[in-house]
Design brief:
The structure holds 2 protein chains of 2 kinds. Helices cover about 30% and strands about 20% of the residues of chain A. By secondary structure, chain A is an alpha/beta fold. In chain A, a hairpin with a 2-residue loop joins strand 4 and strand 5. Chain B has a domain of about 200 residues: Orthogonal Bundle (MetI-like fold), CATH 1.10.3720. Helix content of chain B is about 75%, strand content about 0%. The longest helix of chain B is centred in the middle third of the chain and has 38 residues. Chain B is flat and about 85 Å long. The chains are: A alpha/beta, B mainly alpha.
Chain lengths: ~325, ~350
């Protein structure tokens, strides 16, 4: 059975900002799904929505089927039971996701005891094992978060996420704010743990290269929607949506000397979720937009085997530069 | 994209950079740091106490009024008698000699003899101290508990009806002068007003003639109005400090983590938010603890409570210099000691302090 199935998820914040607008995702056990996008595209909102962690007053509709059960229809008691035991979240542990006044061992053991997975002694033992599993000495359980480095804190966060043997792990920017070496280690660690324990992983990041490297499939989000989805490598190397293309071009490729001299960003800012553009929300920034894009919303459509993109050009590869807008941009520094 | 990297390999590259210093024994390192922190705080407290000792001597000599004139109370006295009094109290000596004399005695625990009571200052203080502690201690426990209880709930339901009502009420009561509220309560509940009979005594600590349990009940009966006055005026400060400290923590990421773990809302508050928000409240608690010794001059005077506050008021009107100095020193010392205690406790409450 599908581990996680998200159908037509919509999230609107109390202020009227539509952060997620009809997202469909699905994930099998042992699979790794990457969700990419700029800040403000709704990817973190999506992560929090999966466990109903959004602030009161937020409207959420659609379906979030976790092992076939709709999280959005559960009573709060059931939701709390699913939290961490069914699906856990690896937050950005390098920053402030750990409680500064509790020892990390206690913080890891807390959900184990809460969900009655073990006795206090058993929880202590399990905590030590988890720490060693993520490459920290078990004795570090008595340390406070401020006594650890950013990378170590992130390891603690991962150990904590695995405390109750969840079926699904959601990693929200797990390597942001870490330096590149530590980032690579953390990614290897996550990959290894997921493949060992046959977990489902949803990994959220703004860094397409990281996701392409770690995940099986990739969904690119823009303005609260998935605008492209497909096998990770293919989406990264040959995006069918102009936004996906811009996103993958924004990160330099190691070894590709040509790309070093042609850095390409995307002009403009992501749209304000409370005042979205008409038609295809990407059209104001799109280098290949047609007149119809200004008025017609673009749905996801087939763009190859097991690939979808929400673009009129999705059938073929996105038209390459040569368009006047593209040239004008590359000539101005 | 190989997942072969073993944890030990991973640690080999990540570890040494940060594990280096901690390998030498984090325990020993933090203990040394804590001892250095404690020594610093104790040194600071000692300096403050000395400064108070000096200040208390000079400050009250600036008060207008002649103790000897007060003592003779308008009677006809000869210049010779006046001179005798001055000699008895040591007021004929040069100022610096009085000062060294005072300091020398103070260091041995002798705070001098009260002019008006003709008794050692230290005896007068130890006599009144329990009465004050009974009143202010009871009030302290109540207003602290009330302030923290309402403050945390107000912050948690920030902007809700109960938050707005409670914060408004607390601010209003906090702004009311304690002596005015005390007098009002006396008029309404002691003297009696309209349909309300005089329920409570108008002042003092006991009616006299009671023993055992009856005595305890009698004192409690006398205690109610002054305690209510103090609690009403004081709880607002604790409430507001607790509330704002907790509000600062409200949007924190670690609270989202706690919720994601499946903790109930009240556990998220008690176990995660409150311990992080505690420091400002703890500071205030210890300042208030220090103030419990100083008593409450206005409330004790209004309710004729035989405590240190009332004693200070009597001593000031003379001015009974040794008694005023002694009381001032004891009041200040209590605050300094409590603040130092708070400093020593912080690192136990929040591991980030003092390391």
């Amino acid at each position: 059975m599908t581990l996680l199935e998200v159908r037509n998820l919509e999230v609107t914040y109390a202020g009227g900002a539509a952060a997620v607008r009809g997202v469909d995702l699905s994930l099998d056990a042992g699979q790794k799904l990457g969700v990419a996008g700029e800040s403000g595209c709704g990817k973190s909102t999506l992560a929090l929505a999966l466990l109903r962690l959004l602030p009161a007053g937020t409207r959420t509709s659609g379906e979030i089927l976790l092992d076939g059960e709709d999280v959005l229809k559960m009573k709060w008691g059931q939701v709390r039971a699913v939290r961490w035991a069914g699906a856990s979240i690896v937050f950005q542990g390098a920053m402030h996701s750990l409680n500064a006044v509790h020892r990390i061992g206690d913080q890891i053991a807390e959900p184990i005891l809460l969900h009655k997975k073990a006795t206090p002694a058993g929880a202590r033992k399990k905590t030590g094992e988890l720490l060693e599993h993520v490459g920290l000495p078990a004795a570090r359980a008595s340390a406070y978060p401020h006594e650890l480095s950013g990378g170590q804190r992130q390891r603690v966060m991962i150990a904590m996420a695995l405390a109750c043997d969840p079926r699904l792990v959601i990693a929200d920017e797990p390597t942001t704010a870490l330096d590149v070496m530590i980032q690579a280690q953390i990614l290897r660690l996550i990959e290894q743990l997921v493949s060992e324990q046959d977990l489902g992983l949803v990994m959220i990041s703004h860094d397409l290269a990281v996701l392409a490297d770690t995940c099986d499939r990739l969904a690119v989000m823009y303005a609260g929607r998935v605008v492209e989805e497909g096998p990770a490598r293919q989406v990264y190397e040959d995006a069918r949506h102009p936004y996906g293309k811009a996103l993958s071009a924004a990160f330099p490729r190691i070894g590709d000397t040509a790309s070093r001299f042609a850095p390409r960003g995307l002009p403009g800012d992501p749209p304000d979720p409370s005042a979205l553009p008409s038609g295809c929300t990407f059209h104001p920034r799109c280098p290949v937009a047609l007149d119809s894009c200004i008025t017609e919303d673009q749905e996801l459509r087939d763009a190859g085997t097991a690939r979808w993109a929400a673009c009129v050009h999705a059938g073929a590869s996105v038209p390459q530069p040569g368009s006047p807008a593209e040239e004008a941009r590359s000539s101005t520094p | 994209m190989t997942a072969e990297a073993t944890p030990s390999l991973v640690e080999a590259t990540d570890g040494p950079a940060q594990a280096g210093p901690s390998v030498r024994g984090p325990r020993a390192r933090t203990r040394t740091a804590y001892l250095r922190y404690v020594a610093g705080k104790l040194g600071g407290a000692a300096v403050s106490l000395l400064a108070v000792l000096v200040t208390s001597f000079f400050l009250f000599r600036l008060i207008p009024g002649d103790p000897v004139k007060y003592m003779t109370g308008g009677r006809q006295v000869s210049a010779e008698q006046l001179a005798n009094y001055r000699k008895e109290f040591g007021l004929d000596l040069p100022m610096w000699e009085q000062f060294t004399d005072y300091c020398g005695k103070a260091l041995t625990g002798d705070l001098g003899t009260s002019y008006q009571f003709r008794a050692p200052v230290i005896d007068k203080i130890t006599e009144a101290l329990p009465n004050t502690l009974l009143l202010t201690g009871t009030a302290f426990v109540l207003y602290t508990a009330l302030g923290i209880f309402i403050g945390t709930r107000s912050a948690w339901r920030n902007g809700g009806l109960s938050d707005r009502v409670n914060t408004g009420l607390a601010l209003t009561l906090y702004s009311i002068p304690s002596f005015w509220l005390g007098l009002l309560l006396i008029i309404v509940f002691s003297v009696g007003m309209g349909p309300i009979p005089g329920l409570f005594p108008t002042g003092g600590m006991e009616s006299g003639g009671n023993e055992g349990f009856a005595y305890v009940m009698d004192v409690a009966h006398h205690l109610i109005l002054p305690v209510v006055t103090l609690v009403a005026v004081e709880y607002g400060q604790t409430l507001l400090v607790t509330r704002s400290a907790l509000l600062d923590e409200m949007g924190s990421d670690y609270l989202t983590t706690a919720r994601a773990k499946g903790l109930r809302d009240d556990l998220v508050r008690r176990r995660h938010a409150v311990p992080n928000a505690l420091l400002p409240t703890v500071t205030l608690i210890f300042i208030n603890l220090g103030r419990t010794v100083a008593g409450v001059i206005l409330v004790e005077t209004v309710f004729s409570w035989p405590g240190l506050g009332g004693l200070f008021y009597q001593a000031l009107s003379v001015p009974d210099l040794p008694l005023v100095q002694g009381l001032f020193f004891v009041f200040a010392a209590a605050v300094i000691v409590m603040n130092t205690l708070a400093d020593l406790i912080y690192p136990l409450l929040d591991p980030r302090v003092g390391r």
